[in-house]
Amino acid sequence: MDGLSDLYQELILDHNARPRNFGPLPAATHNAEGYNPVCGDQITVHMAIEGDVIQKVAFEGKGCAISKASASLMTDQLAGKSLDDAQKLFQIFHALLAGSEAVPQEDEPQLGKLLAFSGVRAFPMRVKCATLAWHTLQAALKNPSTTAHITTE
Ligand code: ZN
Question: What is the pTM of this model?
Answer without folding.
Answer: 0.91
